[in-house]
Each structure stands twice: as structure tokens, then as C-alpha cells.
Design goal:
- It contains six helices and four strands; from the N terminus they run H-H-E-E-H-H-E-E-H-H.
- With 159 residues, it is mainly alpha-helical.
- The strands form two sheets. A two-stranded antiparallel sheet has the order 1-2. The chain has a two-stranded antiparallel sheet with strand order 3-4.
- It folds into two domains: 65 residues, no CATH class; 51 residues, no CATH class.
């Protein structure tokens, strides 16, 4: 048993070095609701969640150290960073109720115009490097506005 635990400690440095230390950590964890499940008439301790909590963090940190920036960005978005960012901005746009509502509708593939306080434009207002306007037809779901090669990420009324 001690050898098996030593092998686990070698892979997961967040574990205590001894089984006695693990028992003490279990006592502390009993107060945390995330490690408990309500069964029919009693509560059950979620051993797998408790024992793998540390290794998940170790593996996450190792992945973050070697992952490319685009992969980290996708993982952050999947984790809710597109909404729960640290700043009061959504992709560089100051957050307001309107920008938040549009971002949520864009994220879930819903039509954007119902969330707009002003009438939606029919054509793209992004300005190309040549100085001319893109003028492509805008779709209701915001696909062109967010991916336009002339601008992208935000749409404005432009010149």
C-alpha cells in the first residue's frame, strides 16, 4: 500500500508524503461540500473527486506550460472567460448591458438585431486598408461582422 501511494506522490506533488498526512487531509476535506454527494438517505464522500483534485491541477499546469497561445485562448473561452473576464471589457469593447447581450446572443448563435438598441445596418461598415468600405451584406447572426477580413471583432457605423 505504501509503495502504491509513493508512486502516486511521485506523480502528484500536491499529495502529502505519507498516508498519515493523507488521512489528515481527508479530515479537513470533510468540511468541503464539493466532496460530498447526497445518496438516498445519507451523504457519501466522493473519493475519486478528492483523490484526483491535485493531479488535475498538476496536469493543467503542465499543459499550460507547453500549450500554444491559441489553444490556451480556446480553453479559456470554453471555461467562460468570454463572459467572466478579469476586465470590464469583452474583446476590447467596454462592457455595457448592450454589448453583453450582443455577446451572449453571438455566442449562442442567436440573431443579434433583437438585442440592438438601434436599427441594424444592412452592410458591413469595416474599412479596408485601401480606405474603401467592405459593404458586404450583414447576416442576422453576426458571422460576417465578427470575421470580416477588413475589420472583424466589432462593427461600427464607419465613415
Amino acid at each position: 500500500m505504501k509503495d502504491a501511494y509513493a508512486a502516486c506522490v511521485a506523480e502528484d506533488a500536491s499529495l502529502p508524503p505519507t498516508l498519515e498526512g493523507l488521512a489528515a487531509r481527508v479530515d479537513e476535506a470533510e468540511a468541503e461540500p464539493r466532496f460530498w454527494r447526497r445518496a438516498a438517505e445519507c451523504r457519501e464522500f466522493k473519493w475519486q473527486a478528492f483523490l484526483t483534485a491535485g493531479i488535475r491541477g498538476v496536469r493543467r499546469d503542465a499543459w499550460l506550460a507547453r500549450a500554444a497561445a491559441p489553444a490556451k485562448h480556446r480553453a479559456a473561452l470554453a471555461g467562460g472567460a468570454w463572459v467572466y473576464g478579469e476586465e470590464d471589457e469583452l474583446r476590447g469593447v467596454p462592457e455595457s448591458r448592450d454589448t453583453y447581450t450582443c455577446a451572449v446572443r453571438l455566442r449562442f448563435g442567436l440573431p443579434i438585431p433583437p438585442a440592438c438598441a438601434v436599427a441594424a445596418e444592412a452592410c458591413c461598415a469595416h474599412v479596408k486598408r485601401s480606405g474603401s468600405r467592405c459593404d458586404a451584406r450583414l447576416d442576422a447572426n453576426g458571422h460576417h461582422a465578427s470575421a470580416c477580413g477588413a475589420g472583424g471583432t466589432t462593427a461600427s457605423s464607419g465613415p
